[in-house]
Automatic annotation (TrEMBL), chains A, B:
Keyword Phosphoprotein attached: no
Lineage: Bacteria, Pseudomonadati, Pseudomonadota, Alphaproteobacteria, Sphingomonadales
Protein family membership: Belongs to the Cob(I)alamin adenosyltransferase family.
Catalytic activity: 2 cob(II)alamin + reduced [electron-transfer flavoprotein] + 2 ATP = 2 adenosylcob(III)alamin + 2 triphosphate + oxidized [electron-transfer flavoprotein] + 3 H(+); 2 cob(II)yrinate a,c diamide + reduced [electron-transfer flavoprotein] + 2 ATP = 2 adenosylcob(III)yrinate a,c-diamide + 2 triphosphate + oxidized [electron-transfer flavoprotein] + 3 H(+)
CDD domains per UniProt: CobA_ACA
Function statement: Required for both de novo synthesis of the corrin ring for the assimilation of exogenous corrinoids. Participates in the adenosylation of a variety of incomplete and complete corrinoids.
SUPFAM superfamilies in the cross-refs: P-loop containing nucleoside triphosphate hydrolases
Keywords in alphabetical order: ATP-binding, Cobalamin biosynthesis, Cytoplasm, Nucleotide-binding, Porphyrin biosynthesis, Transferase
Compartments (UniProt record): Cytoplasm
Protein name, as recorded: Corrinoid adenosyltransferase
InterPro entries, per database record: CblAdoTrfase_CobA, P-loop_NTPase
Gene3D superfamilies hit by this protein: P-loop containing nucleotide triphosphate hydrolases
Organism of derivation: Sphingobium chlorophenolicum L-1
Length: 201, 201
C-alpha cells in the first residue's frame, strides 16, 4: 500500500469524485444490459439475486429461471413470494441427472428451462430476466450458445438479461455489456464449516 | 478450453459430485462467518444484499449499516420495508464529505456508523450484520482496523458479519472465513451507458 497523508487521501478522493462526476455527466444512454457473473468464487447467483431485489424494489417485473437445483432455494423463495406481482420464479433444475445414460433427458430439461427464459425475454411484461446457472448447461453442451446469443441480441432495447455460472463461454462474454468474475480468495468449507442457511442457500 | 466428449463431461461431473458429497459429509461445523467482498468489480454490495435477502427469507434478523451514500438505495429499501421485523437498515453514509477541511466531521460520522455496527454485533437479536462499504472508511483511516477486528473476533459463535468495499485491509482478509474478490471484466459505463434502476441502485 502506498503511504499517503490524510490530506493527500482527501485530495485524491475529491479529484476522483470530480472526475467521476464529469464522466457520469457524459453517460446519457439508458439501455437493457446483458450481464454475466462468472468465475469460481462465490457470489455469482447471490449478486444476481441482489439485482433482482433492486429491480423488484423499483416496481419492475422480473423473471427468474433456475437451471441448477439448489443454487436458489427457500431463502429467496420466501422473499419472492412477498412480491407475487413482481417476480415469476421457475425452479427448473430439479430433474437434471448430469448422467451419460440420461443425457437426452437432461438436454430435454435444459431446453424446457431455456424455453421459459426465451418466453420471458420475448415478453414485454418482463423488465429483467435471470437465467441462473445457464453457463453450466452451455458448458455441458446441453444447449448451443448460438441460440442464447440469438435470443439476447433480439431482446427489446430496455430489457436486462442476467446470466450466471462458472465457465461462461467466450462468445457470451464478448456479447455482454457487464461481466464480473467472482474470484475465490478464501472459503470456509476448507476449514470444516458446512453450508448454512442465509449464506449458502 | 479443454475439448471433451459429452461422455467425458458427464463422467467428470459425476466424479465431481461424488467427491463434493464426500467432502460435504465431513463438514459438520456450523458457525457464524466473517465474510468480506472486495475487489474493483461490481457485485460486492449486491452479493451481500443477496445474502441479506436469503437470511430474511429464513426468518433471520439482519442489521444493515451503510457507510457510503448510494451504495444501497431505494430499490432494496422497498424490499427491506416488506420485512420490518427482519431488517434494520441504517443509511449512515449521507453526511460524509471526503474533504480535508471536514476530516474531523467525517471521522465522527464514521464512528457513529461504526457504533451502530458494534451494537448490532453485540446484540444477540441480530443473526447477521452487514457493514456496507466499511472498507472505504478503513482505507481512509477514519476508523482503526484493530477496532473492527476486535469487535468481529468477540462476536457470538453463530453471528455472521459481512463487510464490503474495495481495498479490504490485509488484516481483515486474514481474519475472514470467506473472501470473494469481484473482478471487473467489462463495464457498460465505458461505452456511454448511464447508471440505471435495478442495476446500479
Amino acid at each position: 500500500m502506498i503511504e499517503r497523508t490524510p490530506e493527500q487521501h482527501s485530495e485524491k478522493m475529491k479529484k476522483k469524485q470530480a472526475a467521476h462526476d464529469k464522466i457520469m455527466a457524459t453517460k446519457t444512454q439508458e439501455k437493457g444490459l446483458l450481464i454475466v457473473h462468472t468465475g469460481k468464487g462465490k457470489g455469482k447467483t447471490t449478486a444476481a439475486l441482489g439485482m433482482v431485489v433492486r429491480a423488484i424494489g423499483h416496481g419492475r417485473k422480473v423473471g427468474v429461471v433456475q437451471f441448477v437445483k439448489g443454487a436458489m432455494t427457500t431463502g429467496e423463495k420466501t422473499v419472492f413470494d412477498a412480491f407475487p406481482d413482481n417476480v415469476e420464479f421457475k425452479p427448473m433444475g430439479e430433474g437434471f441427472t448430469w448422467n451419460t445414460q440420461d443425457r437426452s433427458r437432461d438436454i430435454a430439461l435444459a431446453r424446457e428451462a431455456w424455453d421459459e427464459v426465451k418466453r420471458m425475454i420475448a415478453d414485454p411484461a418482463y423488465d429483467m430476466v435471470l437465467a441462473d446457472e445457464l453457463n453450466i448447461v452451455l458448458r455441458y453442451d446441453y444447449l448451443p450458445v448460438e441460440e442464447v446469443l440469438e435470443a439476447v441480441t433480439a431482446r427489446s432495447a430496455m430489457k436486462h438479461v442476467l446470466i450466471t455460472g462458472r465457465n461462461a463461454p467466450d462468445a457470451l462474454i464478448e456479447a455482454a455489456d457487464l461481466v464480473t468474475e467472482m474470484t475465490l480468495v478464501k472459503h470456509p468449507f476448507r476449514s470444516g464449516v458446512k453450508a448454512q442457511p442465509g449464506i449458502e442457500f
